[in-house]
Amino acid sequence: MSYVKDLARRAKAAAAQLAVKSSADRDKALVAMAEALIGRAGEILDANERDMERAREKGTAAGLLDRLALDGSRLKGMADALVDVAGQRDPIGEVVSGHTLPNGIGLRQVRVPLGVVGIIYEARPNVTADAAGLCLKTGNAVILRGGSLAHESNLALTRVLAEAAAEAGMPEFAIQSVESTDHAAAEELMGLHGLVDVLIPRGGAGLIRSVVEHSKVPVIETGNGNCHVYVHGSADPEMALSIAVNAKTQRPSVCNAAESLLVDESVYETVLPPILVALEAAGVELVGDEKTRALGAAGVALATEEDWATEYHDLKMSVKVVAGLDEAISHINTYSTNHSESIVACDYAAAQRFVVEVDSAAVYVNASTRFTDGGEFGLGAEIGISTQKLHARGPMGLVALTSTKFVLFGDGQIRG
Amino acid sequence: MSYVKDLARRAKAAAAQLAVKSSADRDKALVAMAEALIGRAGEILDANERDMERAREKGTAAGLLDRLALDGSRLKGMADALVDVAGQRDPIGEVVSGHTLPNGIGLRQVRVPLGVVGIIYEARPNVTADAAGLCLKTGNAVILRGGSLAHESNLALTRVLAEAAAEAGMPEFAIQSVESTDHAAAEELMGLHGLVDVLIPRGGAGLIRSVVEHSKVPVIETGNGNCHVYVHGSADPEMALSIAVNAKTQRPSVCNAAESLLVDESVYETVLPPILVALEAAGVELVGDEKTRALGAAGVALATEEDWATEYHDLKMSVKVVAGLDEAISHINTYSTNHSESIVACDYAAAQRFVVEVDSAAVYVNASTRFTDGGEFGLGAEIGISTQKLHARGPMGLVALTSTKFVLFGDGQIRG
User: CB B392: neighbour CB atoms within 10 A?
Assistant: First the structure.
């Protein structure tokens, strides 16, 4: 049997054992895992230093190096997150619905773990601890497949977390990493329909597309955000400026940052110029349509068709003047990745139409798109943000890592 | 642009229009569709007769011919089902959860249509009307891709239903059939990630496996049922006999019929012989392990490894003597398709362990597996029975055809 399949079989067996552990026991293991991250910080930081050294030799960009780097304070952050997860309400065992059938059978729909969860991710080693913690909390076995850059860090983290969990009474193979960064290993993981219950890719657009296209295992698509702010003709101009600048610049590298600004033709000549000035003052590179450029802002290059579809992940924004609400909705539904969009408007009917007709996971009236986040939404810890419609949509908390099962209690009923 | 992609683009545009139709308008259209099935019965039955003729010429088996055949009474049944669906509660617009964030933003999680639903199915033309009705009820555009045997029937049904819906004010392309039974057309449909939101295959194991393996669009796996009845040592022998016979013979061709019988070693010598006699009397062909065969029932052939994994869909059953609860659970979790399983037991602890540890969509104590059905479970109409864990599990009612969206009402909030 191949190495990855063997790993998955062990995960499936571990999932069956995990499913019968009590919530209290799983929470104790999470706390033990947090303590191990601090107690065994040395071996984790040593492994991370080897990753950093190799990355520096390869001339890795400073931004990536920063995401890869671990230190005592980052480990403390990961440990605190595990303790937080331990303190959250356990969704497993919740009776979602139930009634007595006319024939007397008592039906209960009960929340259960998904089983085996695969996570395919890129540079940040904190995903290793987050995903391991969220999966253990929800009674799932996890198979982690991180990127090559953080490989030694991920293996060290997995070893420390898995050993701490096992010592606290959890099954030995509840937390495993794929010890190969070969593409073939990831491909094999994607083919394990029947052994792996769901794959969650976390990373760039290329990684996610590749998993969606190749996986035979059900996938939850996460994260890509080509988000829009639309300034309706009825908008308060100051609010429009404040929201556009915040959505673009408060943290441009994340998925809920805005990438594109749409402004109604009826007001753009007065409302748009101060927004462009403020964006440029904040260091934002602008591309726009002809009307935007004709406003005379010096550095606005002509936006291409590709710009409308691009998530810059950077201090860059595309700007377009639209005829009105219809064109704004149609533009968004054409180019958006269906993550987060906001309308700025004082008109009630426009706001209502926008939230109904824009087909995205989170739709805002008069607020920044930057709030799309499990923590901000009050869901607790977040395993990712789903941009698909099946199973989970938007920020995913613990419930997204569960399924349900129908349990029926009879006393001899047969079907007539 | 290719034909199938063009169809899907029209469906996506129709879905956007459908999403803003009121529940009352959609229900009126469902009633109009029901009336059209009766009013235009002639052209549907003519098309069906052409399918039947071709099928007879090809020497199609009697069972398949029966599933293909339409008559006035079957059309009436399809029309009645549409009227029933119109009368059900509309899940769209339901506020699933909601609260006010600390910063004052009002958050609502609202139930919305999935968008574009693709159904790939085999011989039975009633799926055409059922799926069209359930999708319209939930505000989804549907793309139907039926099997070649029922091709003319499906096209006639789609034409009649789509025209009636359009006359009742629904978008023109809300209900469409793929007018080609080429495998290439189905393959293309499976590749339309971003245009089609979900594919639901309904049919045999081969069809479902092919869709799961090839689709880039998210899939809900349905239907295959290698279901088990397990007779625990503490079982009431008469109840065990009654449930085993009912689960196997009451309607052997359907997915919730039992295929395999497990009996505890501690009681099999007394409990099993009368069950074997009753099954044989009901015309069931039996295969079994050595212990079962040694009981001396004349016609029990030796079960192979393949038998344990086979859904016979017929009056045939595999029988195995197990050491006890552990072996029963392990056997089921190894060979089952995770559809429906039942334990017959008087022992409380055994029953509790069975329902927790057996990893199937529906798990029964002391009742026949034949109850796994949307109607029996009180879910109303059913679009299929999911055997996967993502999105929906077990019988799927209207809610399985929906997603949710976060809607956030602010008054200028930006993230600090």
Answer: 25
